[in-house]
Every structure is written in C-alpha cells, then in structure tokens.
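Let us work through a complete example step by step.
Step 1: write down the sequence.
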Amino acid sequence: MTADTRQVIMDAARAMVQARGYNGLSFRDLAKQVGVKSASVHYHFPTKGDLGAALARRYADEAIEIFDGFLEVSQDVGACMRMYTDVFRSALSNDNRMCLCGIMAAEHDDLPDEVRAEVGRFTDVNIRWLVKLLSRGKKGATGTIEQRALAIFAAVEGAQLVARGRGDIAIYDEAIEAYRAAGLLP
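Step 2: predict the structure and record it as tokens.
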C-alpha cells in the first residue's frame, strides 16, 4: 500500500464503527479487512483513541462542508432541513449504519478523552449549523433558536437510533414526518 493506506484504514474503520460501535473497532479485524498487518494500522494510528479521534474529526469536518453546501444550494429553510435529515437517513440506507459520532456518543464512558472531545465537536458543529439555518431571516432570541437546534439534533439522532434498532428505515421517515407535523422541523 502507498501513502493512501491511512485513508483506506480510516474508511474501513468508519464503516466498522458505524456498524459495530467504537467498542467493536478491532485493529486486527481492520488490518485483515484492509489487507495489511496490524503493525501497519498501529504505524498510522498508535492507539485506538488516536484512530477514533481522527475518525470523529474527519466526520465533523465533512459535516461542515456538506451542511454549508446545503446553505449555498438553497435559501429555503425547509429544503435545507430535508437535505440535513437525508444525511442521517443515508447512513441507515447503507446497511443499517448509524451516524459515526452518534454511535460513539452512546459509548461515551468507554471513549478516551480525545475521542470524546471530537464527538462533542460533532454535536457542536450540528447545533451551530442548525442555528445558522433556523436564524435565516429571523430576528429574535438566539437562546431560543439554540434550544430548538439542540432539540432537532437530538430528535434526528434519536430517530436514527430507533430505526436502526428496529432494522426499519420507515420508522426514521415516520419520525421525521412527525417532527415536521409537530412543528419541530421546518
């Protein structure tokens, strides 16, 4: 393998964590899947915490790029929100996987500090973006918008978790529509 080995390892590790969680991440299984020796994984990521933090950091960075792209594509708050919820839906449609940081957040007590920090950053990225979206054309109390942004993020992550637990993406779709009907989602 070449210099791309690090990225290949990260891609395989991402899929593994989204399917099994952080505790299911094994350097031995990862090396076997990628076709390298375990020492090669350790060369790029000396510890599981280093790999977990790198995964969560990349995931949050990708989210920023994707979400900001929604704001460039459309001025319509509802359309941007649909694109946002579709991102979480796409993980489910990919072999019933979870949001990488959502599944790691569920394992909070087992995460090294560096991974916890990056998972927390992902939450912050989502809330900041949702505040930006919900603030479009509105004057008002930022605190109220931040509370709604947190509620939306928690609701979307929760809908994804329940749908995954049932192995039924339709549950996610039903929950998202229920949030829209209740006025939580624009």
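Step 3: interpret the result. DSSP finds nine helices and no strands in the chain.
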